[in-house]
Amino acid sequence: MRKINIFDTTLRDGEQSAGVNLNMSEKLEIARQLERLNVDIIEAGFPAASKGDFSSVQQIAGLIKNASVTGLARSVKSDIDAAWEALKGGAEPRLHVFIATSPIHRQYKLKLTADEVKETAVATVKYAVSKFPIVQWSAEDACRTELPYLAEIVEEVIQAGAHVINIPDTVGYISPKEYGAIFQYLREHVPSIHKVSLSAHCHDDLGMAIANSLAAVEHGATQVEGTINGIGERAGNAALEEFAVALQIRNDYYQAITNINLKEISRTSSLVSKLTGMPVPANKAVVGKNAFAHESGIHQDGVLKEKTTYEIISPELVGFQTNSMVLGKHSGRHAFKTRLDELGLTVHDDEVKSLFQVFKDLADRKKEMTDDDLAAIVLEEKLSKEQRFYDLISIQIQYGTNQVPTATVTLSGCNNELIQEAGTGAGSIEALYNTLEKSMEGNINLLDYRIQSVGAGRDALAQVYVKMRYAGHETSGRGLAQDVLEASAKAYLNAVNRVLYTEELQLKLVQQQSS
Ligand code: KIV
Ligand code: ZN
């Protein structure tokens, strides 16, 4: 069996999804989970893009020990320098440098000739290998590049010292047969190709990202790039969980394996979905809610007689648990902490006390506490703690079918001052959000509002996601509570707090740099 390296770019290409903005603790939480999933390479971000990106790549590189951490760089020295500063403390620093090679990109975006692109690529790879032990070079929009030119530039960057050559289908345009043929062509026309590892990076604009990635493997790729749940630019990237499971289930055909710990798939998918606010469609392969549901009578009958009649993947293989109800109001702190450990939720000893209190308060009101509930409250408490500028003290909403909905809100403000406001709206949420807007400076435009239950039952927790524009930033937030209005208020404040937190972080970084 050939070993295929898994290069995860959830925190870089995935974070480029519209409406996704992860803060530092969320990125660290995802990186930890990717390490548990056993991916080979984590692309932690684009260090030159912003001070926040730099700092999160640096922290992830310092944290992760069992995967190689990489960062993206354009073909300019300052990007490579920034990436080196961010990654040099990592267990295996690796650079991912790219330049566009297709005629469309050369002419309209870069305004460079084919020769100039080649010279730039060679010069940047030479510079990169003087700093990094491992350099991956990507030909952006490779699939719309003239093949003889692609082969020439690939040969030259290999001679300049690149270790991995990535052939991205940047715009999700290629079909599996054609993508396989590109890999085949390069293997036949690039004299030094045996010195490097070949990588596939597919986008899903035509719904072919996984099929294309598998075709690349059939034609010599030994690395596949993608994201959890397939999030990413536009229609997203290849979904890594689908790729890993496809290789596992069809290794008879592909004769290739990955190091992915398949049992961590469900947990990773749900963490990424929660923190990015991007729901997993019910019918999504491998991780969708319905992926293992058998609805038709004929199918149910078959599965009862013999599972394999209609089930090619077992839910257990990818870590779905059938019985997840574990704790209740009589559970002690020890049982609580043990279950968190079993769920892979990293909680420091000094955090356990306050988390246990939140759990107890909720367990008093809620009959059953499932693993989903536990994961949701722990993530919510842990990850929003550091950025509470405005904090919710109380809300009161009055609603009646023939009354004007009214909200009264009490908050603690940025300097711990008490803020009280009242307001109205056409509905309860509008009254609440109008009142919250009045409580703080600046205009806020709500762009999206979504509500979802955590688990089932009337007493299920409500998870609210909002997207809004505040102080010139597009921001998103999430809120969790047993009551939908409280969850809505929390999501709103979380989105505002994220902007204030990012601004404060930027200010601190500038001050650190100038002192
Ligand atoms: O899709 C793409 O071309 C990319 C490159 C930066 C590798 O993400
Ligand atoms: Zn991409």
From TrEMBL:
Cellular component terms per the entry's GO annotation: cytoplasm
Pfam families registered for this protein in UniProt: HCS_D2, HMGL-like, LeuA_dimer
Pathway assignment: Amino-acid biosynthesis; L-leucine biosynthesis; L-leucine from 3-methyl-2-oxobutanoate: step 1/4
This protein's record includes keyword Manganese: yes
Cofactor(s) of this protein: Mn(2+)
Keywords: Amino-acid biosynthesis, Branched-chain amino acid biosynthesis, Cytoplasm, Leucine biosynthesis, Manganese, Metal-binding, Transferase
Catalytic activity of the protein: 3-methyl-2-oxobutanoate + acetyl-CoA + H2O = (2S)-2-isopropylmalate + CoA + H(+)
Subunit organization: Homodimer.
HAMAP family: LeuA_type1
Protein name: 2-isopropylmalate synthase
